[in-house]
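Bench notes, afternoon.
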Amino acid sequence: MAKDSWWGVDLDGTLAFNEHTQGRTIGAPVPRMLERVKGWIAKGRRVKIMTARVGKHEGETDEDRARIRKEIEDWTEEFVGTRLEVTNEKDYKMIQLWDDRAIQVIADTGIPVRVKEEDKISSKRL
C-alpha cells in the first residue's frame, strides 16, 4: 500500500447525522462511524472527509468554500480529535470510500456487492 494512500469518509449521513439543513450545519457524530475512523487513525491510516459541501456550487465564492472547509475541519478536530483533510475529489490513492449513498460494485463487472431489492435491475430488461 502506498505511503500516501487514504480512506475517504462522507460527512453527512455517514460520519455525522444528516440534519437535512442543506449543509448549513453539521450534525452530531454517528458513534459507530466515529469509532471506526478513530481506530483507523490510531493504526496510522490517512483519513479524508469526502463531501460535496466543498464542491463548486452556484452563488458560492472561494471564500464561502474556505469557510465551509474550516467548519468541517473544526468539527473533525472536536469530535475525531484531529483536523482531517477535506475534499470533494477522489484519486488513485484512495483505498476505500465510506458513503451512505454509494453502491459498491465488483470491479470490472458492474455487479453490485449488495443492493436493495427495489434497486435491482431485471436481466430481462438489459
